[in-house]
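Example record

One chain of 314 residues, shown exactly as stored in the release files.
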Amino acid sequence: MIALKAKLLAKFQQYSVSQQFYLASVVTYLITIAASLYTGISALTIGTTVAAALIICGFIAWCIPFARWLHTAWDKPFAKTPIIIMHLLALLMSTACARFAVAETLGLPPQSFDLTVGFLALLFYIPSWLLVVAILLGLTAVLIMVIAMISLPFEAAWQHMTRLAALLGFQAKFKQSRSMIMFHGAGALIISVLFAMSYGYLTDNFSPAFKAVTKVIALRSDFHKTPNYPDVRTGEYVHPLENGFIAYAREQEDKSVIIGVRLQPAENYDVVVSTIPPLKVVMTNMAEHVKHSRALIWLLSSAASETKSDAILR
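Predicted structure tokens for this chain:
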């Protein structure tokens, strides 16, 4: 028994770190099934969770050499390109989420609320990384699974051919089986599902808070007091929309704010809101303003006092 344990331990140590995690996950799951059948108490949830955690650890250990290589090659353009593409994907995803939040919260087209969408895109940038990484890992998992399904039958056939060649006296080498590649795909898929579930949890549980933040940002950045704008009532904040509509924000007596939409008046509207005087008048008024400004008087008085003191000293 001791010899068998030592042999199994030596065989286990021959595998890489990621493969050791994968084997530990398989053993854990099998022990959980055996214990459930023997005791009659179902512990598959705990065993599956532990096995999935071990698979995730194995996938991370498998990715560590690639991360180190990417860190050493960071100064080269081919290494920066995928990171820049991922940042662009996260930015596009956060912008799309911001527009959806504006449309859902205000019930108005988000295309005209540029500042609100911009601020919300910054808030959604970090959560959008969860969705971007989930999509990329999901595609990676599918790619790994397809490669494994294609390569494993050829590996099995080649293994049998090498054994047959050995029986006939030919020397043929068989490399280590890559059956563990299925676990790489499983690890990528599990992490992808976890990130997608985390993103869904954030959007579902923090939706009321995001709606309140969206209303405050829209009110402070895209609605403005414009008393000279047509058909604007006293104390209203307005935001022009397309097709002759206008959005307004009006404060109520209880300090609450309502946001509504109304159609602008169809009749001709002609009101002078400001007048630009001629250039000569502007320059004359500017010169008079500078001439009577306190700062200029103080500078002239300081210069005169210094000149007087210099004459006394001489």
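Notes: The longest strand covers residues 245-251.
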